UniProtKB/TrEMBL annotation:
It comes from the Eukaryota. This is DNA/RNA polymerase. InterPro entries: DNA/RNA_pol_sf. Gene3D superfamilies: HIV Type 1 Reverse Transcriptase, subunit A, domain 1.
Amino acid sequence: RLVQWVLAANERALAWDETEKGRFKDSYFDPVVIPTIEHIPWQQKNIPIPPGILEDVVKIIKAKIQSGVYEPSSSSYRSRIFCVIKKDGKSLRI
């Protein structure tokens, strides 16, 4: 019963998909400043996405942008992305 009560009292703290995830308010924490040294930013080419799954990958990326998981960036860096098939044999993970 205690576990049931705790879960019911805090159900808004649980996220079952990315659209339910929240963010901390900017006023809670100062922006993080990461010290760096002068260097040339790296820009790696992406691993080619097979045409057969391209549409699914685009849907996943758009959903992550819409839910706020992915944000616009003006960074000079570009890191590779790649897809793997989840254990269910159908779904993709980026």
